[in-house]
Design a protein that fits this description.
By secondary structure, this protein is mainly α. The chain has a two-stranded antiparallel sheet. α1 runs antiparallel to α2, α1 crosses α5 and α2 packs across α3. The longest helix has 14 residues. Helix content is 52%, strand content 4%. The chain is globular.
Protein backbone atom coordinates (compact mmCIF):
# COMPACT_ATOMS: atom_id res chain seq x y z
CA UNK A 1 0.00 0.00 0.00
CA UNK A 2 1.45 3.34 -1.07
CA UNK A 3 -0.73 5.66 1.00
CA UNK A 4 -2.63 6.96 -2.03
CA UNK A 5 -5.37 4.35 -1.64
CA UNK A 6 -8.36 4.33 0.67
CA UNK A 7 -8.42 0.71 1.86
CA UNK A 8 -11.71 -0.97 2.60
CA UNK A 9 -10.06 -4.34 3.20
CA UNK A 10 -6.92 -5.14 5.17
CA UNK A 11 -4.64 -8.12 5.47
CA UNK A 12 -4.14 -9.82 8.82
CA UNK A 13 -1.65 -12.70 8.87
CA UNK A 14 -2.12 -13.42 5.17
CA UNK A 15 -5.93 -13.24 5.16
CA UNK A 16 -7.87 -10.31 3.76
CA UNK A 17 -10.77 -8.89 5.73
CA UNK A 18 -13.26 -6.25 4.65
CA UNK A 19 -13.37 -3.39 7.17
CA UNK A 20 -15.89 -0.77 8.17
CA UNK A 21 -13.93 2.26 6.99
CA UNK A 22 -16.54 5.02 7.32
CA UNK A 23 -15.53 7.78 9.75
CA UNK A 24 -18.67 7.17 11.83
CA UNK A 25 -17.64 3.53 12.32
CA UNK A 26 -14.15 4.55 13.44
CA UNK A 27 -15.41 7.23 15.82
CA UNK A 28 -17.72 4.60 17.34
CA UNK A 29 -14.74 2.25 17.71
CA UNK A 30 -12.66 4.98 19.35
CA UNK A 31 -15.52 5.62 21.76
CA UNK A 32 -15.72 1.91 22.60
CA UNK A 33 -11.95 1.72 23.09
CA UNK A 34 -12.22 4.58 25.61
CA UNK A 35 -15.13 3.01 27.51
CA UNK A 36 -13.99 2.94 31.14
CA UNK A 37 -16.88 0.58 31.97
CA UNK A 38 -15.20 -2.32 30.17
CA UNK A 39 -11.89 -4.05 30.75
CA UNK A 40 -9.17 -3.74 28.11
CA UNK A 41 -9.72 -7.21 26.64
CA UNK A 42 -13.45 -6.62 26.17
CA UNK A 43 -12.83 -3.20 24.60
CA UNK A 44 -10.36 -4.72 22.13
CA UNK A 45 -12.76 -7.56 21.26
CA UNK A 46 -15.66 -5.15 20.67
CA UNK A 47 -13.45 -2.86 18.57
CA UNK A 48 -12.33 -5.79 16.40
CA UNK A 49 -15.90 -7.03 15.98
CA UNK A 50 -17.03 -3.55 14.90
CA UNK A 51 -14.09 -2.99 12.53
CA UNK A 52 -13.70 -6.30 10.69
CA UNK A 53 -16.82 -7.24 8.73
CA UNK A 54 -15.92 -10.96 8.78
CA UNK A 55 -14.66 -10.94 12.34
CA UNK A 56 -16.48 -14.17 13.20
CA UNK A 57 -14.26 -16.10 10.75
CA UNK A 58 -11.03 -14.62 12.16
CA UNK A 59 -8.99 -17.12 14.19
CA UNK A 60 -8.43 -16.00 17.78
CA UNK A 61 -4.68 -16.38 17.22
CA UNK A 62 -4.92 -13.45 14.75
CA UNK A 63 -6.45 -11.03 17.27
CA UNK A 64 -3.15 -9.44 18.38
CA UNK A 65 -2.16 -8.71 14.77
CA UNK A 66 -5.72 -7.57 14.00
CA UNK A 67 -5.52 -5.03 16.85
CA UNK A 68 -2.21 -3.68 15.49
CA UNK A 69 -3.75 -3.38 12.04
CA UNK A 70 -6.81 -1.61 13.47
CA UNK A 71 -4.61 0.94 15.25
CA UNK A 72 -2.53 1.41 12.09
CA UNK A 73 -5.77 2.16 10.23
CA UNK A 74 -7.05 4.56 12.92
CA UNK A 75 -3.67 6.30 12.76
CA UNK A 76 -4.21 7.02 9.05
CA UNK A 77 -1.93 4.27 7.79
CA UNK A 78 1.02 5.48 9.82
CA UNK A 79 2.90 3.57 12.48
CA UNK A 80 2.77 4.96 15.98
CA UNK A 81 5.71 7.28 16.57
CA UNK A 82 7.29 6.41 19.90
CA UNK A 83 5.60 4.42 22.61
CA UNK A 84 5.04 7.29 25.04
CA UNK A 85 1.40 8.23 25.44
CA UNK A 86 0.60 11.74 24.28
CA UNK A 87 -1.32 14.15 26.50
CA UNK A 88 -4.97 14.37 25.56
CA UNK A 89 -5.81 17.55 23.67
CA UNK A 90 -8.99 16.47 21.87
CA UNK A 91 -12.01 14.49 22.99
CA UNK A 92 -13.83 13.21 19.90
CA UNK A 93 -17.14 13.13 21.77
CA UNK A 94 -16.93 16.33 23.81
CA UNK A 95 -15.48 18.33 20.89
CA UNK A 96 -17.86 16.83 18.32
CA UNK A 97 -19.64 20.08 17.40
CA UNK A 98 -16.36 22.01 17.05
CA UNK A 99 -14.76 19.24 15.01
CA UNK A 100 -17.67 18.80 12.62
CA UNK A 101 -18.04 22.57 12.08
CA UNK A 102 -14.38 22.91 11.13
CA UNK A 103 -14.34 19.73 9.03
CA UNK A 104 -17.43 20.91 7.14
CA UNK A 105 -15.64 24.20 6.47
CA UNK A 106 -12.51 22.36 5.28
CA UNK A 107 -14.47 19.83 3.18
CA UNK A 108 -16.81 22.44 1.74
CA UNK A 109 -19.87 20.31 2.47
CA UNK A 110 -21.93 18.82 5.29
CA UNK A 111 -19.86 15.71 5.94
CA UNK A 112 -22.57 14.04 8.05
CA UNK A 113 -24.87 14.05 5.00
CA UNK A 114 -22.43 11.96 2.96
CA UNK A 115 -23.55 8.33 2.73
CA UNK A 116 -19.91 7.23 3.10
CA UNK A 117 -16.76 9.11 4.03
CA UNK A 118 -13.58 7.08 4.43
CA UNK A 119 -11.82 7.57 7.77
CA UNK A 120 -8.61 8.65 6.04
CA UNK A 121 -10.49 11.34 4.08
CA UNK A 122 -12.05 12.52 7.33
CA UNK A 123 -8.58 12.58 8.94
CA UNK A 124 -7.17 14.55 6.01
CA UNK A 125 -9.91 17.14 6.43
CA UNK A 126 -9.35 17.13 10.18
CA UNK A 127 -5.62 17.73 9.68
CA UNK A 128 -6.45 20.56 7.27
CA UNK A 129 -8.39 22.50 9.89
CA UNK A 130 -6.87 25.93 10.31
CA UNK A 131 -7.74 28.73 12.68
CA UNK A 132 -11.09 28.49 14.41
CA UNK A 133 -12.79 27.61 17.66
CA UNK A 134 -11.35 24.10 17.79
CA UNK A 135 -7.77 25.33 17.40
CA UNK A 136 -8.43 27.99 20.05
CA UNK A 137 -9.79 25.42 22.50
CA UNK A 138 -6.91 23.00 21.86
CA UNK A 139 -4.33 25.80 22.20
CA UNK A 140 -5.77 26.93 25.54
CA UNK A 141 -5.88 23.34 26.80
CA UNK A 142 -2.25 22.86 25.82
CA UNK A 143 -1.09 26.12 27.42
CA UNK A 144 -2.96 25.32 30.63
CA UNK A 145 -1.53 21.77 30.68
CA UNK A 146 2.00 23.16 30.33
CA UNK A 147 1.40 25.90 32.88
CA UNK A 148 1.96 28.66 30.30
CA UNK A 149 0.43 32.10 30.66
CA UNK A 150 -2.68 32.75 28.59
CA UNK A 151 -2.97 35.92 26.53
CA UNK A 152 -5.67 38.34 27.72
CA UNK A 153 -8.08 37.30 24.95
CA UNK A 154 -7.43 33.61 25.75
CA UNK A 155 -8.21 34.20 29.45
CA UNK A 156 -11.42 35.94 28.46
CA UNK A 157 -12.34 33.11 26.08
CA UNK A 158 -11.59 30.56 28.79
CA UNK A 159 -13.73 32.37 31.35
CA UNK A 160 -16.65 32.55 28.92
CA UNK A 161 -16.25 28.99 27.56
CA UNK A 162 -14.76 27.02 30.43
CA UNK A 163 -17.21 24.12 29.93
CA UNK A 164 -16.01 23.85 26.33
CA UNK A 165 -12.30 23.94 27.19
CA UNK A 166 -12.12 21.77 30.32
CA UNK A 167 -12.41 18.05 29.76
CA UNK A 168 -15.52 16.66 31.35
CA UNK A 169 -14.97 13.94 33.92
CA UNK A 170 -16.52 10.66 32.81
CA UNK A 171 -17.79 8.48 35.60
CA UNK A 172 -18.30 4.74 35.58
CA UNK A 173 -21.73 3.36 36.48
CA UNK A 174 -20.35 2.42 39.90
CA UNK A 175 -19.10 5.96 40.52
CA UNK A 176 -22.44 7.45 39.43
CA UNK A 177 -24.33 5.04 41.71
CA UNK A 178 -22.08 6.00 44.64
CA UNK A 179 -22.66 9.69 43.93
CA UNK A 180 -26.41 9.12 43.88
CA UNK A 181 -26.23 7.12 47.11
CA UNK A 182 -24.31 9.93 48.79
CA UNK A 183 -26.75 12.55 47.51
CA UNK A 184 -29.69 10.58 48.91
CA UNK A 185 -27.90 10.08 52.20
CA UNK A 186 -26.99 13.76 52.54
CA UNK A 187 -30.47 14.88 51.60
Amino acid sequence: MTGWELPEALEVNGREYAVNADYRDILNIISRLNDAEEDEETRAYVALALFYEDFERMPESDYPEAVKTLFWFINGGEKEVGSRPHPKTIDWEQDRSLIIADINKTAGCEVRALPFCHWWTFLAWFNGIGEGQLSTVVSIREKRRRGKKLEAWEREFYQEHREMVDFKKRYTDEEREEQERLKRRLG
